[in-house]
Amino acid sequence: MPTPTAVPTAAAPAPRRRRASPRPPARPKAPSPGEGAGPVAALPPAFAAWFGRRGWAPRPHQLALLAEAEAGRSALLIAPTGAGKTLAGFLPSLVELAASPKRRAALHTLYISPLKALSVDVARNLGTPVAEMELAIRIETRTGDTSAAKRQRQRRDPPDILLTTPEQIALLLANPGAKELFADLKRIVLDELHALVTSKRGDLLALDLARLRRLAPGVQTVGLSATVREPRELVAYLGGRADPEPAIVTAPEGAAAVITMLDSRERLPWAGHSARHALKEIYDEIRRVKLALLFVNTRFQAEQLFWDLWRINADNLPIALHHGSLDVGQRRKVEDAMAEGRLKAVVATATLDLGIDWGDVDLVINVGAPKGASRLIQRIGRANHRLDEASRAILVPANRFEVLECRAAITAAAAGAQDTPVPRSGALDVLAQHVLGMACAEPFDADAFYAEVTDAAPYAALARADFDRALQFVAHGGYALQAYDRFAKIRQGKDGRWRVSNGKVAQQYRMNVGTIVQAAMLKVRLVRSRGAGASAAGTPTGTGPIGRGGRVLGQVEDGFLETLLPGDTFLFGGEILALQAIVDDEALCARTSGTEPKIPSYAGSKFPLTTYLAEQVRAMTSQPEAFDLPDQVEDWLALQKAKSALPPRDRMLVETFPRGGRHYLIAYAFEGRLAHQTLGMLLSRRMERARLRPMGFVANDYAIAIWSHHDVGSRIARGLVTLEELFDEDMLGDDLEAWLDESSMMKRTFRICATIAGLVERRHPGREKTGRQMTVSTNLVYDVLRRHEPDHILLQAARDDAATGLLDLRRLGELLSRIRGKILHKPLRKISPLAVPIMLEIGREPVYGEAEDAVLADAADVLIEEATADDDSVETEGAGRGQTRRGESRA
C-alpha cells in the first residue's frame, strides 16, 4: 500500500542581524474602511505592493486589527474559516518588525496554538510574505518535536517570531532565564482560542499568560477564534487587569456552505458506527473531486475506514491516514503531501479539525454524526478554506438515529447556531503544577503570586484559601503525606519567598509538564519477523531471534496490546501487523497479511452529543412529518408510532418489556452518552433498593437500557414503584456520593489529577513508569487520602472533574428537572423499533474486520423481526441478551 513521502524543501537562510537603532515613530492610525483611503493605501508601501502583486486587498477586519494594535489595545478577532485570521493576527507584528530592521535581537511575537501541526503550517505560510517582501524577520517553531539543541539555542538567541504550543510556553516560563527571554515581548497571538479555553490546557495557558503580562508589561494579546456564542467570555483571557476591555473585531460571514446528507441506496443500518453500507458511494465521491477530507470521530473509526477504502481502491487512488497515534514523521509526510497536491483523500480525526490551511480541499465528508453543530462548522471550513467560496460537505450517517442527528446539524449550520462549550473555572491540579513551575523559574512571594494567579481568567474568583491549599500541597503533599520527603517540592526561605527544593525536582517538572494525560501507550516498532529457528530434530519452529531496529510507526494503548498473543494481527496506520513480542515500552511487530485484523480502540475518544443537537433530535422524533427525512427513517419512526409511541418533545418516553427471561426498561432521554451513563449507574442503585434486582445497563447518546430479574412494568402498573421515584432529582445527592466513593472511575480521575499536579510522575530520567505502576501508586495514595484527609485538594479536583466532564452532572440535573411529572410510560409485550439500536449494544463482545458487521447484522435482523412482527406474542431468545452485571456498563 503506497504511503505519501516527504519532499525535502530548502530552508531559507536566517536574515543577518543588524545593530539596534531607535524605533521610528508610530505611523498614524490606519483609516477605517470607508474613511477616504483605500484598503491598500492604509498599509506601508512594501505591504501594499505585496498585496497588489497578488491581486489582493486587505480585508476590513485585517485593517481593523492593525488599527487596534497601533492604538495599543489587545483584541479578539471572530472570523469564519478562510477569512484570513492568521494574516490578520500577524500583520501588526510584521509591520512593526519591518519598520525596525536594526532592532536588538529579541523575541517580539509569540504565537500559541493547540496543535503542533498548526504551528508548523502557519510558519510555512507566514514565511511566504516575509520572503517575497525580503523582510529581515526570523520565524521559528518550537514544539515537542524540536531538537534539544535548537530549543537551547532559541533561549540564547530567540527569533523575532516564535510559534509554539501551551506546553512549550510553560517550559520556557519555568526556566530561570524567562525574565530576560520575554522582557521585550510585544505581542502574543492566540490561535483557535475557542478550542483552548474549554480544557485544562486553557487553564495552564491562562496562568502562563498572566506571568507573561508581568514579565512584559504592556504586551498586547490577539485572540483568533471561529464564531462562538459568547465572544465576551473569550475576551477575558486576553488583557488581564491592565487591559480589561480588549476590542472585539468581527469579520463578515463568508459564502454559505453547501451541506448535504448522503441518502444511500443501500439499506440503512439500525445500529453501528462503521458506515460500511455507504462505502462504495463514499469512494465514488472521492473519485469525483481533487482532494477530499474524510472526518471521523475516533481513531478506531479512522483505521477502519482507511482500511475499508483501500480494499475497494481499484483505481489505486492516493489515500492517506492522519490521527494522533501515528508517528509524527508519518503525519508530517501526509501534511506535506496534502499541501503539495499529491493526495486524493485523507481520512482524519480531530487532528485536522483546526485551522490548517488546505486551500485545495474541495470536499469534506463527515462519516458518522458530528455530535455538535460547532464541530461540523469547523470541519466544513477545511474545504476551500476561502471566505468567498462556498465549502462543500457531505454527511454520511452510520445508522438511523444518526440520520436525525445529521439533519439537525445541517439545520444548525445553516442557521449559524453555535454549541461551543462555555469557558471553565480553573482546575486546582493545574494550579499546583503552575506553582511548581514558577518556583523553578525564580523564588516568589505568595501574596504577589496570588495576585498574579487571579489575573488569569479561569482563576479570577479563586479564593485565597484554595490558593494556599495548592501552595501547601506543592510544599509537602498535604496533611496526610507531609511525613514523606519526596512530596516536599518547594520550600520557604528565611526571606519568606518560596523556591524549588532542589535541581532534581526541577528536572522532574520539565519532564512531566502539561495537562494531557494519555492512557499508558506502547511504541509500535516495525521489525523483521522471527527467524526460522529449529528444534533439536532440525524442524523449523519460527522461534528465532527478532530483528530489532526498524522504524517506529506510532503508539497504541497497552491495554489493547495486552489482549493479543504473539502472532495475533491488528490494524495500525493502514497496515496489518503481527505482534512478535512486547519488550520494555515497545510492541515489536512485523508486516503481514490477513482479512480480519483487530483494530485498536482508544480511551476518551468519543464526543458526546451536544445539548443543542439533542434538543433538535427530540423535536424530530416527536414530529417527524414536519421534517424532510429519508424514506427509511420515516418508515422506522412510523413503525415506532404504531407499535409504541414517539418520544414527545416535552416528556421522556420510558418503555418496559420482557425479553429472553429478563425485563427491560428503556428511557429515551436524548442527553448524550456521558449523562446517560451516570443516570444508568444511579438508576441501578435505586432499582436495587426497590428490590427490582437490576443486572446491568448500557447507554448511548439517545437512550439508556437497564435489565433486571423482576418485571419493572408490572410493578409500576400495580403502584409498587413509580417512575417519578426512580427518576427523582434527589439521586444526585446521597446516591451520587455513595456511588462515587465506590467507583473505580474516581480512582482513574484521581490518577489523572495526581499526574497533572505532580504528585506522581510518569517520566523519569532514562525510564518511564508503566500504566500498571502508575495505577498501583495512585490507588494507594487515593485510599490513604480518603481515610485520613478526605478534603485533600486532589480529591476535590477529581470530584470537580467528574462532575463537569465524566459524569456531565449539569445536563443530568437539567434532565431530571425537566421530566419531573412528565414521564410517558409505555408497557409493551415486546421490543419496539426505537429500542433496537440500544438493545444491540447489550453484551456486545469486540468483533473486528468484516465479521463485525456480519455479527451485528445477524443480531439486528432478529431484533428487527421481533419489533416489526404483527404477532405481539413473538419473543426470541438470544440476540441482544445481556452479559454484564450491574455496574459493568458496556456503553
TrEMBL record:
Alphabetized Gene3D superfamilies for the sequence: P-loop containing nucleotide triphosphate hydrolases
Domain Helicase C-terminal: 278-428
GO molecular function, one term: helicase activity
Keywords: ATP-binding, DNA damage, DNA repair, DNA-binding, Helicase, Hydrolase, Isomerase, Ligase, Nucleotide-binding
Residue span(s) of domain Helicase ATP-binding: 66-246
Source domain of life: Bacteria
Comp. bias intervals (Low complexity): 1-14
Compositional bias ranges of the Pro residues kind: 22-31
Keyword rRNA processing assigned: no
Chain positions covered by the region annotation Disordered: 1-39, 867-891
Pfam (any one): Helicase_C
Keyword Aminoacyl-tRNA synthetase part of the UniProt annotation: no
GO BP terms, alphabetized: DNA repair
Ranges that cross the membrane: none
PANTHER family the record matches: ATP-DEPENDENT HELICASE LHR-RELATED-RELATED, LARGE ATP-DEPENDENT HELICASE-RELATED PROTEIN
Family recorded in the similarity comment: Belongs to the Lhr helicase family. Lhr-Core subfamily.
Protein name according to UniProt: Ligase-associated DNA damage response DEXH box helicase
